[in-house]
Design brief:
Distance between the termini of chain B: 14 Å
CATH topology of chain B: Rossmann fold
Structural class of chain B: alpha/beta
Radius of gyration of chain B: 13 Å
Number of domains of chain B: 1
Oligomer: heterodimer
Radius of gyration of chain A: 16 Å
Number of strands of chain A: 8
Largest interface: A-B, 30 and 32 residues
Structural class of chain A: alpha+beta
Helix content of chain A: 25-40%
Order of helices and strands of chain B: EHEHEHEHEH
Order of helices and strands of chain A: HEEEHHEEEEE
Number of helices of chain A: 3
CATH architecture of chain A: 3-Layer(aba) Sandwich
CATH class of chain B: Alpha Beta
CATH superfamily of chain A: CheC-like
Helix content of chain B: 40-55%
Largest sheet of chain B: 5 strands, parallel
Number of helices of chain B: 5
Number of domains of chain A: 1
Chain lengths: 183, 122
């Protein structure tokens, strides 16, 4: 069973990771929790997992492979969509998901030291119908409204294998990135 | 002949890192996973620095680092991991394989460029 505080914690850490990975520097982003997934109509998902022996988190980044979405993610990588093939555009979306779950993974490591994450996989939206078979103890859908971007949707599912209870401390969030640590 | 080998299964990261280094005057080779990285390093003795992801298909970055030291017997090339991972256990494994450093993604080129240039003697 996942405590209310832990559910809040998963949501908060994912929200922070989304702001750190999906939003260009200096742009505003509002993230709202959705009651269900009825408004999500994207045809594809990039899926990653973050797992410990206590739980498995599945994060789904919904996207429609269209010009507007590709242009946004190309811009996030300081590239022009005209220079990129469709596969490169999809890879750019997957890499943003990878960055987001990397941040989530690092922040969760403060509470669950034995934790690891998968590489991204792109699957069809219809696969989401089978999520119920994973007996998730917590499911939350989010909508991201970012300046000059199409509305993005992300789903969080947590399958618990034991009682999970933790409270997020602000000091553990957002460890430094991009710096070279020399050995 | 390249100075830096960038190893990542993501074409986005290969392009981002490779283009940045090229724009700053460095010669760059690219590899798509650890196995490809080993092959590229075997074929180019001019490579002075390997910048590699950790989690990749076929062969991960830490296994590649270990094989560079053992299988290729190359003790001189500098190896830096560029990854979303920040696990102390993985870093210890990297240190044991003789890697030089660790960068947590996202890549911030300006922050690491002086060190990269120093490591390749540019």
């Amino acid at each position: 069973m996942i405590s209310s505080a832990a559910k809040e914690g998963f949501d908060l850490l994912l929200t922070q990771a989304l702001k750190g990975s999906m939003v260009p520097d200096g742009c505003n982003c509002d993230i709202v929790r959705l009651a269900d997934d009825t408004d999500i109509r994207a045809s594809k998902m990039t899926v990653l997992t973050v797992s410990s022996y206590l739980f498995r988190i599945i994060v789904m980044f919904h996207f429609t492979p269209d010009a507007e979405t590709f242009a946004y993610f190309a811009g996030l990588n300081r590239a022009s969509v005209g220079e990129m093939s469709e596969q490169e555009c999809i890879d750019a979306i997957a890499e943003r998901g990878n960055l987001c779950c990397g941040m989530l993974n690092r922040d969760l490591a403060a509470y669950f030291p034995h934790i690891g994450m998968s590489t991204p996989n792109v699957i069809d939206r219809h696969c989401a119908a089978y999520l119920q078979m994973l007996n998730c103890g917590h499911i939350q859908h989010f909508a991201l409204d970012i300046e000059r971007a199409p509305r993005l949707h992300v789903s969080l599912c947590v399958s618990d294998y034991a009682d999970i209870d933790f409270t997020v401390s602000p000091e553990t969030m957002g460890s430094g990135t991009g710096e070279l640590e020399l050995f | 002949m390249a100075q830096i080998l960038v190893v990542d299964d993501s074409s986005t990261v290969r392009t981002e890192v490779g283009d940045f280094l090229k724009k700053n005057g460095l010669d760059v080779a690219l590899a798509v996973d650890g196995r490809d990285g080993l092959d590229k390093l075997k074929g180019d003795p001019g490579i002075k620095l390997v910048v590699s992801d950790v989690n990749m298909p076929n062969m991960d970055g830490l296994t590649m680092a270990e094989r560079i030291r053992s299988e290729l017997g190359n003790a001189n090339v500098n190896i830096i991991m560029l990854t979303t991972e920040n696990s102390p256990i993985m870093k210890e494994r990297g240190k044991a394989a003789g890697i030089k450093g660790w960068i947590v993604k996202p890549f911030k080129g300006e922050a690491v460029l002086p060190t990269f240039k120093k490591l390749v003697g540019a």
